[in-house]
Structure formats: structure tokens, C-alpha cells
């Protein structure tokens, strides 16, 4: 692992993912539709998704061979996707916060451990995400949930070309900021103090 990859991973885990867990925890369970961001926010999301497709091209082969992230029939669309896309022509088709739930993660991990202990379940493959097709994800990149374009395991992160890491981080920051804006616009206290969310 190069030093540059190491730096990228540390920042991605400590700042990007830790912040997302924190923001997810801060988000009200049922945010008001008034908290939906301006359509300009979704334009930034789409641009970030398109650029990430380019900068993380190196992951395509390893992810196509593995496919682990597209298993489990749980929605990857969250309240964040909902509130970023709600005022656009392409709202999120569904949403919940289960993918960020620590309880669900623990339950799922325990369930798989238990299944591995049972002989007839040893080769059990979890059900796929509803958007998975024989050719991979059936959604165009810009329509995918934000978590699907910003998640990397160690193997995938190491497959990103070193020269693309800075650009990748730049577009991850855009997605990170959208999550922050959703929380700010969902909590009335911040809405009153800061006024409309900045474009
Ligand atoms: S990110 Fe990692 S675990 Fe997920 S599909 Fe790609 S290689 Fe597999
Ligand atoms: S939405 Fe697409 S990329 Fe995301 S988990 Fe489902 S099949 Fe995979």
C-alpha cells in the first residue's frame, strides 16, 4: 500500500465515514419535507457521481468480480438521498435509514456468522439488492444511492489509481457536504440560525 493510499483511507474512514454515521444519528427520524434541498444540490450530486465513475474506474474490475456490496435486500436509498432529490424530476424511488443502523449491521453480521455454522447454510449467498441485474447495477450511475458511489472496501480503495485519489476525495467532499446540508436543513434550530441552505 502506498503512503498516498494510506492517507486516503485514513481520511475516508475517520472523517468521511465517521461523520456520516454522526450525521445519520443527528438526522430526525422523520425529517419534514420542508427540509428538502434546492434542486441545485442534486445537480452537484449528479456531477460528483459522474466524476467518481471516472476517478474510481480502477475499482470496476474488482467490484464486478466480487459483488459483495450489492447483496442484501436492504434499501441503499436513505433520507439523505430523499431530501437531496425530493424537489427534482428524479426523486429517490424509496428510502429508509436501515443501511446506517448499527442494530441492523450487528443483527446482519450475527445472522451470517450463525448461518456459516450450519452445514446446509455454509454456502448461502444473501439475496441481492433489488436493482442488481445480470449485468450489474441496473441504475445509471447518477441515479444510484449516494452510499453506492462512495463506499470502498480496502481492496477497492487500493484499486483506485494513485493519481486519481485527490480527485476522488474532492468529489467525496461534495457528497459529504450534501449530507451536512441535509442535517442543517432538517433541524429547525439550524434553519432559523443559518437561513436557507447555501447553494
Ligand atoms: S467495494 Fe469491495 S466488497 Fe464491495 S463489491 Fe467492491 S470489492 Fe467487493
Ligand atoms: S443500487 Fe445498484 S450499486 Fe447500489 S447496491 Fe443496489 S445494485 Fe448495487
Tell me what the structure shows:
By secondary structure, the chain is mainly α. It has one domain (about 5-195). Helix content is about 55%, strand content about 0%. It is built from nine helices and two strands; from the N terminus they run H-H-H-H-H-E-E-H-H-H-H. It has helices spanning about 5-25, 40-55, 60-65, 80-85, 100-115, 145-150, 155-160, 165-185, 190-195, and strands at about 130-135, 135. Strands 1-2 form a two-stranded antiparallel sheet. Strand 1 and strand 2 (about 135) form a beta hairpin. Helix 2 runs antiparallel to helix 8 (about 165-185). It is globular, with a radius of gyration of 18 Å. About 25% of the residues are buried. The model is unreliable at about 195-199 (pLDDT under 50). One iron/sulfur cluster binds near residues 62, 66, 68, 69 and 156. One iron/sulfur cluster (SF4) binds near residues 139 and 145.
Structural class: mainly alpha
Cα-atom Rg, whole angstroms? 18 Å
Question: In which range does the helix fraction lie?
Answer: 55-70%
- Percent in strands: under 5%
The termini sit apart by 37 Å
Q: Summarize this, please?
A:
This protein is an all-alpha fold and 199 residues long. Helices cover 56% and strands 2% of the residues. The chain has helices at residues 3-26, 39-55, 59-66, 79-85, 102-117, 146-150, 154-159, 165-186, 188-194; strands at 132-133, 136-137.
Features of this protein?
199 residues, mainly alpha, two-stranded antiparallel sheet, 9 helices, globular, disordered C terminus, binds iron/sulfur cluster
Amino acid at each position: 500500500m502506498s503512503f498516498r493510499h494510506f492517507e486516503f483511507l485514513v481520511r475516508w474512514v475517520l472523517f468521511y465515514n465517521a461523520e456520516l454515521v454522526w450525521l445519520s444519528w443527528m438526522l430526525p427520524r422523520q425529517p419534514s419535507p420542508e427540509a428538502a434541498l434546492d434542486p441545485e444540490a442534486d445537480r452537484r450530486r449528479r456531477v460528483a457521481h459522474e466524476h467518481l465513475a471516472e476517478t474510481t474506474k480502477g475499482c470496476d474490475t474488482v467490484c464486478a468480480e466480487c459483488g459483495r456490496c450489492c447483496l442484501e435486500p436492504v434499501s441503499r436509498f436513505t433520507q439523505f438521498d430523499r431530501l437531496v432529490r425530493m424537489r427534482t424530476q428524479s426523486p429517490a424511488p424509496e428510502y429508509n435509514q436501515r443501511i446506517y443502523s448499527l442494530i441492523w449491521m450487528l443483527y446482519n453480521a450475527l445472522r451470517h456468522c450463525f448461518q456459516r455454522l450450519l452445514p446446509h447454510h455454509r454456502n448461502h449467498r444473501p439475496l441481492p439488492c433489488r436493482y442488481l441485474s445480470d449485468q450489474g447495477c441496473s441504475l445509471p450511475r447518477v441515479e444510484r444511492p449516494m452510499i453506492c458511489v462512495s463506499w470502498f472496501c480496502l481492496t477497492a480503495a487500493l484499486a483506485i489509481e494513485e493519481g486519481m485519489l485527490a480527485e476522488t476525495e474532492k468529489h467525496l467532499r461534495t457528497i459529504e457536504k450534501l449530507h451536512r446540508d441535509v442535517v442543517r436543513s432538517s433541524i429547525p434550530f439550524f434553519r432559523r440560525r443559518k437561513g436557507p441552505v447555501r447553494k
